[in-house]
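Hey, can you fold this one?
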Amino acid sequence: MKNKWMSMNKKEKLRWGRNVVQLLFFVLFPALSERTVKWLQKLKYLILVFVLLLCYMGQGEQVGKNSPWTFFSMITAGRFPMLSYAVSAVLLIVILIGMAVHERFFCQFLCPMGAVFSLLPELPLFAMKRKAQNCISNCQLCKKRCPVSVKIGEEPYRRGECIRCGKCMASCPRKNIMIH
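Sure. Predicted structure:
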């Protein structure tokens, strides 16, 4: 092992290290269940309502102060915030861990703008459609490839959660999925 490690170039060592880190995350933080994902997707709507209520009550500065992005920008600028930014620090840590566990964690579960954007596609324009009768039995590649866990063609179809990435369309062996 020692000889092999010494013979690796820097790029190979980085690739090896990245694979070890990914393996550790998958062992320490198992994938989120489908039920958990559906529940967490509702959380961003609660956050949106909370932010709107704070702004309505004239407490909009609390939104900025408790934002994980405020905390992150202060750290990257070399200013280390006081204990009064504890909420934003905890949120940033949750987001970083979540990103290691689930693709698009912040956008899908916590982002208030994600809630706004997910409401817009509820209009009947640009919906993804799947011809279920042409599907291969038990294939479900479209479901497996979807980064936001949308099941096209099943009810209830959460059209607002779809980000139109096209991974479902690209993965379908029979090209059954199209934008309607």
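The beta strands are 128-130, 177-179. Let me know if you want another pass with a different chain boundary.
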